[in-house]
Design brief:
Helix 4 packs across helix 8, helix 6 crosses helix 11 and helix 9 packs antiparallel against helix 13. The protein has one domain. 76% of the residues lie in helices and 0% in strands. The longest helix has 43 residues. The radius of gyration is 29 Å and the shape is globular. The chain is mostly helical. One of its GO terms (cellular component) is plasma membrane. Belongs to the autoinducer-2 exporter (AI-2E) (TC 2.A.86) family. This is AI-2E family transporter.
Length: 402
Amino acid sequence: MAHTESNGPADPLPPLAPAASRGGRWAQGLPAIWGDAWGRSAIRSAQALLVLTLVAVVIWALTRVPLVLTPIMLALILASAISPMVHWLARHRWPRTVAVLTSFVAILAVFGGVITGVVFLIRSQSKDLVSQADIGIDRLHGLLVQGPYPVTDAQINSIRDALQKFILSATFGNEALTGLRVAAEVAVGAVLMAVILFFLLMDGEKIRNFLLGFLPPAQRTKAHAAADHGAVVLGGYVRGTALVALTDAVIIGVALAIMRVPLTLPLAVFVFIGGFIPIVGATAAGTLAVVVALIFNGPVPALVVVIVLIGANQLEHHVLQPFLMGKVLRIHGLAILLALAAGTTLAGLVGALLAVPLTAVGWSIIKVWTGRTTAAAPSPGTPAPGAGPAADSRETAAGVQE
C-alpha cells in the first residue's frame, strides 16, 4: 500500500484516547463511560469496597475461632517480648535449645508463681476477710443512710432483693454454666498458647520463611523487613507496657500496704494486669482497690487511695509512657481509643488487650511497606522472635526510625 503524506492538520484522536492519555494505559479499551474522571473514581471505589469486604470477611472468620486465634496472638506478643532474652543467652554461648527452654520455663515460672501466691494469700486470709467485710458493709450502710445524699433502707433492701432473685433465677445458673465453659476454654487456650510460644521461640525463623515464601520473590525482602520492624515494635511495646504497669502496681500496692488494706498483693497484681489495657485499664483496676479500701478501712483511707491512683495515672501518661514508648508507639490517642473500642466489641477483654499492640504493629508494617519508615539496625537484643543465625543478615532492617 502506497504511503501518502498529508500537509493538513493531524487526524483527531479516537474518543477514548484523551481519557486514556489522562488516566494511563489501564483505561484503553474501556467504554467511554468508564474512561473519564467519574468512571475511574467508580472503579477505584469498587476496588476499595472489594478490599474492605475481604478484610471484613477475614476478621469475621477469625473471630469465629477465638480458641485458636487468641493463643496465637498472645504467643506472638510473648515471643516478641522474650526473644531478646533468648538471643542474650545465645550470644553468651548457650546452646539455642537450652536458651529457649530456659526462657520458656522462666516466663512460665513467673506467671505460675504469681497466680499461686495470690491464690494461697486469699485462702489464708479468707476467714478474717469475711469478718471484716461484715463490719465494713455495716459502715458502708451507715454512710449511705447518713451521707449527704441519703439512701433509704427500703431502696437498699430492694436492691438486695433484686440481687437475691437474680442469683436464684435460671439466668444466673446459665451464666454460671457459661462461666465454667469459659474457664475450660481458658485452660485449653493457655496450654495451646504455651505450645505455640515454645515453637515460635524455637523455630520462629523457619515458620516465618515458610509463610513469606508464598509471596512473589520481588516482595520477600520488603516483607522480611516489615516483619522484623513489626517484631521490634511489638516487643518494645510489650516490655514498655509491662514496666509502666509494674510501676503503677508498685505505687498503688505501697499505698495499700501503708493504709493496711487487706489483699494488698492481689489488688496490686490486678492493677498490673489492668495496666496492659491502655488509658483505662489501670484506672479501672485501681477502682477495685478503692472499693476494698472503702469497705474494709473506711472513707479516709479510700480517699487516700483515690489520690494515689490519680497521681499514678498522671505519672503514667505524662512521664512513663512518653519516656519508655515514645519511639515505639507513635499512634494518636484517638486512634488508640478507637482501636480499644473495636477490639472490645469484637473480642471482649481479650480484644481490649490485643487491639493496641496489633494496631501499632500493623501501622509499622504499613510504614515500612510504603517506604515511609527507613529501616535501620535495631538496638542490641531486639531481634525478631525465634530468629536464629539465618536471620542475622536481615536484622539490619529491623530498627525503628521515623
